[in-house]
Write a structure and sequence with these properties.
With 157 residues, the chain is of the alpha+beta class. Helices cover 30% and strands 29% of the residues.
């Protein structure tokens, strides 16, 4: 039996924060604002896993108004989503994700991001696809005000 889920996340870019995408630090003059580390990619993947399981979203499991989760690494959120999936008898078969950002250019980080996500999720790097796209100047990501991510996950028993 297999199940699919889709996840989405967006965070504002601000001065004075680290930019963490896929569990790695990306050198950039701004970072993402959030209650946690604001790792849009790991949040989108985690939401996709939870959605495939019909188990809510990361806000349900890690409420943004709860100080216990302040500055929580996205890696911890993904590990918890994976725990829930495995407890329900599922493993990740495939992750496909798109990061939407005008800057910084992310293609040089694809291999590191894939290796990081694979390590956190405990899956082979060959089961992960990562792409980055611009928003062609449209909306908050296109104006360089935010970074967003979409993820689709296939789970199998």
């Amino acid at each position: 039996m297999s199940r699919t889920g889709i996840g989405y996340d967006i965070h504002r870019l601000v001065e004075g924060r680290r930019l963490i995408i896929g569990g790695i630090d990306i050198p950039y003059r701004k970072g993402l604002l959030g209650h946690s580390d604001a790792d849009v990619l790991l949040h989108a993947i985690s939401d996709a896993i939870l959605g495939a399981l019909s188990r809510g979203d990361i806000g349900t499991h890690f409420p943004p108004d709860d100080d216990a989760y302040k500055d929580m690494p996205g890696a911890s959120i993904l590990k918890k989503a994976m725990e829930i999936a495995r407890k329900d008898g599922y493993d990740v078969q495939n992750i496909d994700a798109v990061i939407i950002a005008e800057e910084p250019k992310l293609s040089q980080y694809y291999d590191r991001i894939i290796d990081s996500v694979a390590g956190i999720a405990g899956v082979p790097p060959s089961s992960i696809g990562i792409k980055a796209k611009t928003n062609e100047g449209l909306d908050a990501p296109g104006r360089g005000e935010a970074i967003a991510a979409y993820a689709v996950v296939l789970l199998g028993k």
